[in-house]
């Protein structure tokens, strides 16, 4: 997918979400939007032509504790609904996402539907799944 195609796709999506006129992606191929409680980020790679769409699960203050990321990956392997995405940790921003990558431009309606599922799943992962993983990985203090 070219940068122009990715930009047009993101612009079309943002317009449909009621966002004010947006460039879609900036000069570096990045963009983002908040839809309800969900945060969605876009990143286009000119090298691969891929458009990565990432719905935020959780932003860590520090590096995650050992086992936390594995706990989320285990949830994905166990079949917990990811909304069509995969668990994705970005160490630079210390953020955990459900991400979905597009190599060709999907139909706008399909794209919007898939992003809705991705964002809905990210909210569940940021709440219920996060609590479940934390309870397994972070020891409960002794009384």
In short:
The chain is α+β, with helices and mostly antiparallel strands.
How is this fold's topology laid out?
Elements: H1 3-16, E1 30-35, E2 38-44, E3 51-59, H2 68-77, E4 86-90, E5 95-102, H3 108-137
Antiparallel strand pairs: 1-2, 2-3, 3-5, 4-5
Helix pairs in contact: 2-3
How is this structure best described in words?
The protein has helices spanning 3-16, 68-77, 108-137, and strands at residues 30-35, 38-44, 51-59, 86-90, 95-102. It has 143 residues and is of the alpha+beta class. It has a 5-stranded antiparallel sheet with strand order 1-2-3-5-4. Strand 1 and strand 2 (38-44) form a beta hairpin. Helix 2 (68-77) packs across helix 3. It is elongated, with a radius of gyration of 16 Å. The termini are far apart. The mean pLDDT is 92.
Primary descriptors:
143 residues; alpha+beta; five-stranded antiparallel sheet; 3 helices; elongated
């Amino acid at each position: 997918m070219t940068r122009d195609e990715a930009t047009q796709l993101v612009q079309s999506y943002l317009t449909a979400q009621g966002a004010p006129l947006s460039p879609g992606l900036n000069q570096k191929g990045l963009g983002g939007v908040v839809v309800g409680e969900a945060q969605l980020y876009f990143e286009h790679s000119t090298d691969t032509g891929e458009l990565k769409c990432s719905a935020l699960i959780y932003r860590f203050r520090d590096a995650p504790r050992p086992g936390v990321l594995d706990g989320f990956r285990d949830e994905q392997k166990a079949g917990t609904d990811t909304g069509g995405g995969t668990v994705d940790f970005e160490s630079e921003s210390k953020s955990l996402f459900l991400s979905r990558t597009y190599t060709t431009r999907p139909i706008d309606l399909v794209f919007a539907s898939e992003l809705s599922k991705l964002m809905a799943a990210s909210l569940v992962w940021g709440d219920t799944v996060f609590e479940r993983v934390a309870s397994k990985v972070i020891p409960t203090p002794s009384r």
